[in-house]
Amino acid sequence: MRIIIHPDYTTLSKWTAYYIAQKIKSSNPTPEKKFVLGLPTGSSPIGTYRELVKLCQEGKVSFKNVVTFNMDEYVGLPEDHPESYHYFMWHHLFSHVDIPKENVHILDGNAKDLEKECHDYEEAIRRAGGIDLFLGGIGADGHIAFNEPGSSLSSRTRIKTLTYDTRVANSRFFGNDPNKVPKTALTVGVATVMDAREVVIIINGIAKARALQKVVEEGVNHMWTVSMLQLHRHGMIVCDDDASFELKVGTVKYFKDIERENLSLPRL
Ligand code: GLP
User: Which residues line ligand 1 (CB under 6 A)?
Assistant: First the structure.
């Protein structure tokens, strides 16, 4: 697993956006062979999305031949609700780049048959040729997408009940009332993410320091579902100094040393 440690969130966000843009460009996507990108919501990727919008508007990258699959969506929240992940994605990214609407896939938390929705989503990913790069964030408890502690590490897209911790964490978007946060969500599984040819996880801020320590310095464990990244062939964590707070000095020095040459912005 690669770990890229940036001094702060701004640098991390810019670097991650350039990294993704570079991956899209170098794959030379065409209408026949599109680049398939997995995407998260949450505050962590907002800076990256802002930079990607800038790069697209400057003509440095295009999303015309990019297909996206989002990680998750709340159950029962209308798509136009400001806290739905549909709303989030169009607001922060899709409305500002040249992606065709039909290339965007987000789980429908209002589908009549939620199990079928999850099954069809896995099928759609398969039909698209699998995901080239899955970008993710994590919760403070190390969950990826909505794969809460204890989730099967071989899970696929399904309905999940959110933990109280997650509802409290996300209540900041729902008037600080955990009871207003939907209790269930549709989410890709840990295995759905791990099937991607490459996985890039953004971990920033002191609140994620404990999770980063568990994921990097301890073993694969279903209580910290993102730790599954240790078994991925092309897994990378992009973090900031604040998030590295609980890592051993030696761990930080090691990764800073081996990635020293790779901290400058990828060329576009
Ligand atoms: C939610 C999402 C996750 C996200 C997490 C962290 O639980 N389902 O995909 O990683 O929030 O969000 P933030 O980046 O705001 O800390």
Answer: 40-44, 71-72, 137-139, 145-146, 166
Spatial separation of the C-alpha atoms in residues 174 and 143, rounded to whole Å? 20
User: For residues 46 and 153, what is the distance between their CA atoms, to the nearest angstrom?
Assistant: 27
pLDDT tens for each residue of the chain, 268 residues long = 999 999 999 999 999 999 999 999 999 999 999 999 999 999 999 999 999 999 999 999 999 999 999 999 999 999 999 999 999 999 999 999 999 999 999 999 999 999 999 999 999 999 999 999 999 999 999 999 999 999 999 999 999 999 898 899 899 999 999 999 999 999 999 999 999 999 999 999 999 999 999 999 999 999 999 999 999 999 999 999 999 999 999 999 999 999 999 999 999 9
CA distance readout (Å), 185 to 109, 117, 191: 7, 12, 17
Q: How far does the centroid of ligand 1 lie from the alpha carbon of residue 207, in Å?
A: 12
Nearest CA to ligand 1 atom 3: 145
CA of 166 to the centre of ligand 1 (A): 9
- Give the end-to-end CA distance of the chain in Å, rounded to a whole number: 24
Note the pTM of the prediction, 2 decimals.
Answer: 0.97
Among 138, 184, 200, 210, which is best to mutate for testing ligand 1, by the most ligand atoms less than 8 A from CB?
138
Mutating to test ligand 1, I would choose from 44, 69, 181 the residue with most ligand atoms within 8 A of its C-beta, which is 44
Tokens of 136: 């993710």
Rounded to whole angstroms, how far apart are CA atoms 229 and 208?
A: 16
Distances (CA, A) of 125 to 18, 69, 193, 251: 24, 8, 11, 36
